[in-house]
Amino acid sequence: MGPKLTGGEFIVILTGAGISAESGLGTFRDKDGLWTRYDLAEVATPEGFARNPALVHEFYNARRANSREARPNPAHEALARLRRDWPGDVLIVTQNVDDLHERTEPAPPGGDGPSGLIHMHGRLEGALCAACGHRWPAPARMAPADPCPACAAAATRPDIVWFGEIPYHMDEIWFALRQADLFVSIGTSGTVYPAAAFAQDAGRAGAWCLEINAEASAVAEDFDAVLIGPASRKVPEWVEGLLAALSHPPG
Ligand code: NAD
Question: Ligand 1 pocket: which of 14, 20, 23, 28 to mutate (most atoms <8 Å of CB)?
């Protein structure tokens, strides 16, 4: 399925909450998930944080604890394999704030995350000072009175992009979407912008676009093909097929 490949293609992959669902981390849409017990406007907006920082920290402390207990599933592992074995470049842009992608790859020296992975909505493992912009590794539990290690202001927040804020690294992402030969969206509902428009942007610039999701997303018509099924099965199958096509090119 899809275009004829040489191995030199640049692959851009967007992941959403659905890729981590089978690791036990709830999506927005889960009926009994953590998200349903909290009002998004109260825990995922700057205004909510200004009103009740203790509640917001409690919410993200619980999500950080869940994320630390979770393990990458075969979908994360398959993308790590693709990044290792695909001869061309592979960029993963994730909307997820968990660290399950990076846990499939050996940590590079210097404590940085792996290159080729962008957390456009921030990370549960990051802390950010709202006063001076300093960033540091998040402790297991954060609280409103925590001082910033750089400026001592009690303005600590999770390093998460909330609704109404601008996602991180957008210039780099737009640039990559324009260069991509293949754009693949995995486990995202296509309801949160700007990520929901990425297939349109990449497609317009010439990329072949594939969606892998448990059900067709709100923007499924922007893709050249849609694979329906659980990420833990569909992503390894897709990666296997891609790498096999390289070792056995159609005659
Ligand atoms: P979403 O909850 O809106 O949609 C999840 C999508 O995943 C749905 O389309 C659903 O059909 C699909 N899905 C569910 N289980 C799946 C599975 N096993 N295999 C394949 N697909 C599956 O999530 P979204 O589109 O990522 O929403 C965007 C926002 O949600 C982001 O801002 C993100 O930061 C936040 N979020 C992140 C996490 C996380 O870090 N793990 C969890 C929940 C929400």
Answer: 28
- Atom of ligand 1 minimally distant from the CA of 121: 34
What pLDDT is recorded for position 5?
Answer: 87
Looking at the structure, do residues 38 and 115 belong to the same domain, yes or no?
no
165 in contact with ligand 1, CB cutoff 6 A: no
51 and 111: one domain? no
* pTM of the predicted structure, to 2 decimals: 0.95
86: closest CA among 164, 7, 194? 7
Residue 105, both tokens = 């790859």
Structural domain for 147, as ranges: 26-69+122-160
1: its two tokens? 């399925």
pLDDT, one tens digit per residue, over 168-225 is 999 999 999 999 999 999 999 999 999 999 999 999 999 999 999 999 999 999 999 9
Residue 112 pLDDT exceeds 70 = no
What is the CA(213)–ligand 1 centre distance, in A?
A: 10
Same domain, 90 and 174: yes
Would you state the pLDDT for residue 109?
57
pLDDT in tens, 119-146: 999 999 999 999 999 999 999 999 999 9
169 is catalytic: no
47 and 62 in a common domain: yes
If you take atom 7 of ligand 1, which residue's CA is the nearest one? 18
**CB of 226 closer than 6 A to ligand 1?**
no
Q: Is 187 in the pocket of ligand 1 (CB under 6 A)?
A: yes
